[in-house]
UniProtKB/TrEMBL annotation:
<comment type="similarity">
    <text>Belongs to the trans-sulfuration enzymes family.</text>
</comment>
<keyword id="KW-0663">Pyridoxal phosphate</keyword>
<dbReference type="InterPro" id="IPR015421">
    <property type="entry name" value="PyrdxlP-dep_Trfase_major"/>
</dbReference>
<dbReference type="Pfam" id="PF01053">
    <property type="entry name" value="Cys_Met_Meta_PP"/>
</dbReference>
<dbReference type="InterPro" id="IPR000277">
    <property type="entry name" value="Cys/Met-Metab_PyrdxlP-dep_enz"/>
</dbReference>
<dbReference type="InterPro" id="IPR015422">
    <property type="entry name" value="PyrdxlP-dep_Trfase_small"/>
</dbReference>
<dbReference type="GO" id="GO:0047804">
    <property type="term" value="F:cysteine-S-conjugate beta-lyase activity"/>
</dbReference>
<feature type="modified residue" description="N6-(pyridoxal phosphate)lysine">
    <location>
        <position position="207"/>
    </location>
</feature>
<dbReference type="GO" id="GO:0019346">
    <property type="term" value="P:transsulfuration"/>
</dbReference>
<dbReference type="GO" id="GO:0018826">
    <property type="term" value="F:methionine gamma-lyase activity"/>
</dbReference>
<keyword id="KW-0456">Lyase</keyword>
<dbReference type="GO" id="GO:0030170">
    <property type="term" value="F:pyridoxal phosphate binding"/>
</dbReference>
<dbReference type="InterPro" id="IPR015424">
    <property type="entry name" value="PyrdxlP-dep_Trfase"/>
</dbReference>
<protein>
    <recommendedName>
        <fullName>homocysteine desulfhydrase</fullName>
        <ecNumber>4.4.1.2</ecNumber>
    </recommendedName>
</protein>
<dbReference type="GO" id="GO:0047982">
    <property type="term" value="F:homocysteine desulfhydrase activity"/>
</dbReference>
<dbReference type="GO" id="GO:0005737">
    <property type="term" value="C:cytoplasm"/>
</dbReference>
């Protein structure tokens, strides 16, 4: 028998070690502490000489099953987990960066990540250099000046820009930087950054991994020594994943490949349809041949993902009419769920920016982020069509 493939691992990885009482499903262990009558055994577990659990802030059997599953799917040496994706990001940067250090990243990281770079790290005298996303020469030039961390995300929010991870990891390695990739949008179904030379891969498990918009969580996978240090930071600082959330994420991950394959298919169909609509000015999806990152995406991703965005003529006025008309889409801030989710970028990912700042970042006021669900693509397209047709005819005559 060869090595098991993705869906087999998504089902079985991490499960067996956490079962008890003949149960076939991982139990949700709510117990805050784990008791010992044998003082020597307790001591051995406490100092890590023997496998076991002591206190829920540190480790928990349900949480451990989640960590083992994501570790396996990312092909990593080690993994640890967090209460949210932002906790994974802030704890990782908190572990690695000290006053005087320098970090290089891109302008289009997730909104919360961008806030860490622009608001919190500078207060700690950590130098942050944010390069134009997709400008590989600019990133290489900044990295070559030396940095402790090179932090990437690909594809990005909301215009799904693509960065060449292998090329950037090589640049990072040349100066001894720790290369981190936020893989939330691609998921391990479509891309494994560790195989491309990254040291750490981060997920907001809240999105595609869980896939049902009912649990918050985050993970960091990679080199064991780094992950151990990040785990230590988290166990002391306390951003622990809740066992019930870990259970929901574990359950969601079993269908990860089925969901992602369908979401990629739907995103592609919706993107192609949107290209034919008159009032749609622009469609951003890496699967489209005219997307600036298409060639790199084709090289480094197995499929193009479930996220796209499009800009409508008439800006905010149009989306105010259009979005409420959609029947098969939640108008909400999350993404990656089994239901289609839509939202204006001005309200979701880039709500903190002024219209001028958004324009400078190439985000038109009429940009809509579209997270394709697993519905039938014919229905999603028909839904968009009826919404476009319902727009007041005088909307564009000013
Ligand atoms: C949502 C998101 C995060 C933050 O995750 P939370 O679970 O909401 O804290 C980080 N990175 C990306 C790309 C995201 O989409």
């Amino acid at each position: 028998m060869g090595n098991p493939k993705f869906s087999t691992r998504a089902i079985w990885a991490g499960e067996k070690d956490s079962l008890a009482f003949g149960a076939t499903q991982v139990p949700v262990v709510h117990s805050v502490s784990f008791g010992y009558d044998d003082m020597d055994e307790w001591y051995d577990v406490a100092i890590g000489k023997k496998q076991g659990h002591i206190y829920g802030r540190n480790t928990n059997p349900t949480v451990q099953a989640f960590e083992e599953k994501i570790r396996d799917l990312e092909g990593a040496e080690a993994a640890t987990s967090f209460s949210t994706g932002m906790a994974a990001i802030s704890n990782t940067l908190g572990t690695l960066l000290y006053p005087g250090d320098r970090v290089v990243s891109i302008k289009d990281t997730y909104g919360g990540t961008n806030k860490i770079f622009t608001e919190f790290l500078p207060k700690q005298k950590i130098d942050v250099e944010l390069c134009d996303t997709g400008d590989h020469e600019a990133i290489e030039k900044e990295v070559a000046k030396g940095c402790k961390v090179l932090y990437l995300e690909s594809p990005t929010n909301p215009t799904v820009k693509i960065t060449d991870i292998e090329r950037m990891a090589k640049a990072g390695k040349a100066v001894g930087a720790i290369v981190i990739v936020d893989n939330t949008f691609a998921t391990p179904v479509n891309q494994n950054p560790l195989e491309m030379g990254a040291d750490l891969v981060i997920h907001s498990a809240t999105k595609f991994l869980g896939g049902h918009a009912d649990a918050l969580g985050g993970s960091v996978c990679g080199d064991k020594e780094l992950v151990d240090a990040i785990y230590h930071y988290r166990e002391i600082n306390g951003a622990t994943l809740d066992p019930m959330a870990a259970y929901l994420l574990l359950r969601g991950m079993k269908t990860l490949k089925l969901r992602i394959d369908k979401q990629c298919e739907n995103a592609m169909a919706v993107a192609r349809y949107l290209q034919t609509v008159d009032i749609v000015e622009d469609v951003f999806y890496p699967g489209l041949e005219n997307h600036p990152g298409h060639d790199i995406a084709k090289e480094q991703m197995r499929d193009f993902g479930g996220m796209l965005s499009f800009a409508v003529k008439g800006g905010v006025d149009t989306l105010r009419h259009l979005l409420p008309k959609l029947k098969y889409a939640n108008k909400a801030a999350n993404l990656g769920s089994v239901e289609t989710v839509v939202g204006p970028s001005r309200t979701t990912s880039h709500v903190e920016c002024t219209p001028e700042e958004r324009a400078a970042m190439g985000i038109p006021e009429g940009l809509i982020r579209y997270s394709a669900g697993i519905e039938d693509s014919e229905d999603l397209i028909a839904d968009l069509e009826q919404a476009f047709q319902s727009l007041p005819k005088d909307l564009f005559v000013h």
